[in-house]
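job 3f2a | input accepted
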Amino acid sequence: MMKNGKVFLVGAGPGDYRLISLKALECIRRADTIVYDRLADSRLLREARADVELIYVGKASSDHTMRQEDINQLLVDQALAGKTVVRLKGGDPFVFGRGGEEALQLKAAGILFEIVPGITSAISVPAYAGIPVTHRGVAASFAVVTGHEDPDKGESSIRWDKLATSVDTLVFLMGVENLPHITASLIANGRPESTPAAVIRWGTKPEQQTLVTTIGRAAQEAARQGIKPPAIFIVGDVVNLREQLAWFDKRPLFGKRILVTRAREQASLLTEKLEALGAECIEAPAIKIVPPDSFAALDAAIDNLVTYQWLIFTSVNGVDYFYRRLWAAGFDSRALAGLQIVAIGSQTADRLRAKGIQADVVPLEFRAEGIVAAMRNKLQPGAKVLIARAAVARDVLPNQLRELGAAVDVVDAYRTEIGDADGAYLARELAAGRIDLITFTSSSTVTNLLDILGPQGATLISQAKTACIGPITAVTCQEHGIETDFIAGEYTIQGLVDAIVSAVTGGKEA
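job 3f2a | predicted structure (510 res):
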């Protein structure tokens, strides 16, 4: 007899995918099935197993892909099939999340369940808008109220006569569509029209929008500005603190949508840095890092490392793939003893340092000219140099080293392929002007994105500004008729971020 599974009712938090608990992530990673809502950030689903079954049930305001009763039964059925099920819900399962109804149905069916609380939007969204729900001397109490009550149902279950004036701060969830009813009820029951209020849409996310108003003007102004769900409505004198405490939407890149074209496994570093400065990043891998067609040349070079005097790594990828083959041959970092190591770029040097290797040379300029200049006085005539790099790369560096009298072997440590970015989606977003900036971190990200976008690629890319990690990448853009707006002063990810911030803020410090 098959043993029943278990259901975890998990709160995904208010919108920012990083506002999730460690336990919630553990549940996502071990789930057989994830049943999720519109408000659960899709990036959380990347934490799931490759073989997980994903079931989308919608739950947008007044537009449910699946009825709540059917969701309840779905959870039961999945658990009866022996599955470990995660019901991933925006916010907290028990704060207007209908988690109680789901738990009761599971209980009735004899299914084991656990509740994994989430950060509710009732406190987190105001916090991201710089509005504390309580504050000494301003508000000693707060209440969380549904804003989704049907005003035509007859008798309200909300005691407006008690609520309107007895609580300092009122937070209405899912209330933007009922603002006329909510504000009229508050005013009719004694809350002054002049009471400060705020409507916050898409709170904690890069597209967060905050309208500061009063109870008397809130419904009219929200309608005029076209504020739609999901949004919360907060009432009370604490709203005035936003003028001093606003932080989230004051960051230098807030509101900017930036396309990150790096390989998926490497995009996170750039994304994290840009998002920390307020940007919304769209990860659209234009390249994929894969093994070379053959490791024969690299393996042969590793077997003969003692014959070389110099070893040059041109990227983090080169380090990673070189070490995989080094270990496969039964060696470790000790095999590099006696070699002069060159790391092109601070990140490459950092990756070597993580392997226990301190690079002897880290050129200040990450172009062939800078590398040759850094090695010129150290390179002996006839010295053997090994360069481990990507297949199909520029030959400027090896050629210039040969002109200095070096014997240079170039081996393919890895190669790049076109990535799996969704070309149709990107074309729509670019054509509609919904992408502000595209980042290019190598020439291959440029050429591959053009291939992904198709014949109109250059035209579509021109709808946004572009930022290149260095002049070589910028030249590739130019060769394809793409204007480069910003070039990193230092050819690193941090240099790229600094160039973007400087351009957006007019040179002000982030």
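job 3f2a | The chain is about 35% helix and 20% strand.
job 3f2a | closed
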